[in-house]
From TrEMBL:
Domain of life of the organism encoding this protein: Eukaryota
BP terms from Gene Ontology: fatty acid biosynthetic process
SUPFAM superfamilies in the record: NAD(P)-binding Rossmann-fold domains
Keyword set includes NADP: yes
Name listed for the protein in its UniProt record: Bacilysin biosynthesis oxido BacC
Keywords for the protein's UniProt record, in alphabetical order: NADP
GO terms assigned for molecular function: oxidoreductase activity, acting on the CH-OH group of donors, NAD or NADP as acceptor; quinone binding
Leader peptide range in chain numbering: none
Entry-linked InterPro entries: NAD(P)-bd_dom_sf, Sc_DH/Rdtase_CS, SDR_fam
Matches recorded under Pfam families: adh_short_C2
C-alpha cells in the first residue's frame, strides 16, 4: 500500500478508499464502507491535480475516523443502461392495417391521417378502402411525403387494397395481403364508420339501422377476428412489454354521451367503446392490446359538407379549449396507442375532443 502524507484534510469512515480520478478541482475516490462501494468526491487543501493524487493510490484505513469532507453519491450506471427500460415510439419493422384509409379528394380524413403518421414513424401500412382509388391516393401521398423527407422505403411504406370490411372473406384477404407482402401483422386500426340511419327509434328505417350496425360494429369484430391469429404469430419481446399486437378502434364522443339527433350513430359508437373493453379482457393475456380513440367534432371531409361558418363556431364553443380539431389530432392519438409507447395501455378509451366530454365549458369567468 502506498502511504499518503497525513496533511490532506481527509477523514473518512471508509475501510478502504482508492483514488480513481484526479482533476483540477477534485479527486474522485472509490470508497468502501460497511460492505458497499460508493463514489466519493474530495477537494483536498493542496492542488488535486498534484502527482500526490494519482489514480490507483489507496488511502490508509488507519487514518480514517470521520466522514466529513468526502461526499458520497449512489453508484452511477452507464446512461445506455438507465435508458434501457423505456419503450420507443419508433414503428420500423411493424406492419399496420388501416381500414377506411381513403378520403375524398386530397382532403385529410381520419384514416388517411392515421396511415400517414404510422408510415412516417416507420410502419408498413396496408391502406384499405372500398373505393380503391382513395386508398391509392393515400399510399401515393405516403410515398411522396417520405421521398420529400429523404426517407428510403425498404420495405415499402404503403400499399393500397380494395375491400369491404363488412365482408368476412374480404377481411381475411386484407390480413393475408399484409402477411404475404410484409411478413407479419402488428397493428390494426379500425376506422371505417358512417353516420348511418337517420331518425329516432320511432321513425328510423330498420334495414338502414341493421346496415349501420354492420358497418360501424360488426366490421371491427370481423377485422379483429382475421387479424388476431396473425398477430399471435409474433414473438414476445421483453422490450415492448411482451406485446404481440395492437388494435385501435375509432369510436366517437357520441358513443359516450347522449344528446345526438339520430339513434344509430351513438348506439353503434357506444358498442365500439364497450367492445374495446371486452376484447381487451379477452386477448390481454395473449399479448394483444385493444384501445379506442373517441374523437369529438373534428373538421374532416365527412363533416365539411353542408356545414356553415356559424355551425363551425357553435361546435368550437362546446369544448373547453374553444378550438377546432382535425384528422391529424385524431391520428396522433391513434399513433400513440398503436405503438410500443402504449405497451402498458389496454382497454382504454381516449377522448380527443378539446375537453368537450370532461366538463361543460364556462361561458363566464365565475
Ligand atoms: N369526422 C369526425 O368529426 C368524426 C368524429 C368522431 C368519430 N369519427 C369517426 O372516424 C371514422 C372516420 O371518419 P372520417 O370523417 O375520416 O370518414 P370518411 O368518410 O372521410 O372516411 C371513411 C372512409 O371509409 C371508407 N369506407 C366506408 N365504408 C367502408 C367499408 N364497408 N369498407 C371499406 N371502406 C369503407 C370510405 O370510402 C371512406 O374513404 C369513422 O368511424 C367516424 O365515425 C369521425
Amino acid at each position: 500500500m502506498i502511504r499518503l502524507p497525513g496533511d490532506f484534510g481527509l477523514t473518512t469512515m471508509a475501510s478502504k478508499s482508492v483514488i480513481t480520478k484526479q482533476s483540477a478541482l477534485f479527486v474522485r475516490l472509490a470508497v468502501r464502507r460497511g460492505g458497499h462501494e460508493r463514489l466519493g468526491f474530495w477537494r483536498p487543501a493542496v492542488r488535486p491535480s498534484s502527482s500526490k493524487f494519482q489514480s490507483g493510490l489507496e488511502l490508509p484505513a488507519s487514518t480514517t475516523k470521520r466522514f466529513s469532507t468526502v461526499t458520497t453519491t449512489k453508484p452511477q450506471h452507464p446512461v445506455k443502461d438507465i435508458l434501457k427500460g423505456r419503450a420507443r415510439r419508433d414503428l420500423h419493422g411493424k406492419v399496420a392495417i388501416v381500414t377506411g384509409a381513403g378520403s375524398q379528394g386530397d382532403d385529410i380524413g381520419n384514416g388517411r391521417a392515421i396511415s400517414i403518421l404510422l408510415a412516417e414513424d416507420g410502419a408498413s401500412v396496408v391502406c384499405v378502402d372500398k373505393d380503391v382509388s382513395l386508398a391509392q391516393r393515400t399510399a401515393s401521398i405516403i410515398h411522396q411525403a417520405l421521398k420529400r423527407r429523404g426517407k428510403p422505403e425498404s420495405p415499402p411504406a404503403a400499399l393500397a387494397i380494395q375491400a369491404d370490411v363488412t365482408n368476412e372473406s374480404d377481411c381475411r384477404r386484407i390480413v393475408d395481403t399484409a402477411v404475404s407482402s410484409f411478413g407479419r401483422l402488428d397493428i390494426l386500426v379500425n376506422v371505417v364508420g358512417v353516420m348511418g340511419a337517420h331518425g329516432t327509434a320511432v321513425d328510423l328505417n330498420p334495414e338502414e339501422w341493421a346496415w349501420g350496425l354492420e358497418i360501424n360494429v360488426t366490421s371491427m369484430m370481423l377485422m379483429s377476428r382475421a387479424a388476431i391469429p396473425a398477430m399471435l404469430q409474433n414473438q414476445r419481446r421483453e422490450e415492448n412489454g411482451s406485446i404481440r399486437g395492437s388494435i385501435v378502434n375509432i369510436g366517437s364522443v357520441a358513443g359516450l354521451r347522449g344528446g345526438t339527433r339520430h339513434l344509430l350513430y351513438p348506439t353503434s359508437k357506444g358498442a365500439v367503446v364497450n367492445m374495446t373493453r371486452a376484447m381487451a379482457a379477452h386477448h390481454g393475456r395473449d399479448g394483444i392490446r385493444v384501445n379506442c380513440v373517441c374523437p369529438g367534432m373534428l373538421f374532416t371531409p365527412m363533416m365539411a359538407g353542408g356545414m356553415t361558418d356559424e355551425m363551425r363556431e357553435a361546435r368550437k364553443k362546446r369544448s373547453l379549449l374553444g378550438t377546432e380539431g382535425n384528422a391529424w389530432d385524431c391520428a396522433s392519438a391513434v399513433r400513440f396507442l398503436a405503438g410500443d409507447e402504449a405497451r402498458w395501455i389496454t382497454g382504454s378509451i381516449l377522448t380527443v375532443d378539446a375537453g368537450a366530454t370532461a366538463a361543460v365549458a364556462l361561458s363566464s369567468p365565475v
